Amino acid sequence: MMKQETNNVVYVGLDVDSNQFHGSLYHKGLEKTIGRFKCKGSFGALMKRLRKLQEDGYEVRVCYEAGFMGYGL
């Protein structure tokens, strides 16, 4: 059985530099970007940001932008 999507889905596009995660938030139901963020380049800092979105009632989906050498997180 496939899970039915809700209109409260937020897609988080991630880019990473040597020190930080950069995120862009796209709301599926509103069909627009609703925010951007930067956080420390650690798993814990990123998860804190993503959990906050979930606590605010969003269904979170994440996509990482591959660099020139592929997916090297």
Structure description:
- This protein has one helix at 43-55; strands at residues 9-16, 20-27, 32-40, 59-64.
- It has 73 residues and is α+β, with helices and mostly antiparallel strands.
- The mean pLDDT is 87.
Beta-strand segment tally? 4
Overall domain count: 1
Compute the gyration radius: what is it?
A: 13 Å
Q: Assign an overall shape.
A: globular
The helix/strand series, from N terminus to C terminus, equals EEEHE
Please give the share of residues in helix.
10-25%
Strand order, largest beta sheet: 3-2-1-4
Model regions low in confidence, pLDDT < 50 over at least 5 residues: none
Q: Give the overall pLDDT as a whole number.
A: 87
The portion of residues forming beta strands comes to: 35-45%
Largest sheet properties: 4 strands, mixed
Q: What class, by secondary structure content?
A: alpha+beta
In whole angstroms, how far apart are the ends?
A: 32 Å
- How many helices does DSSP assign? 1
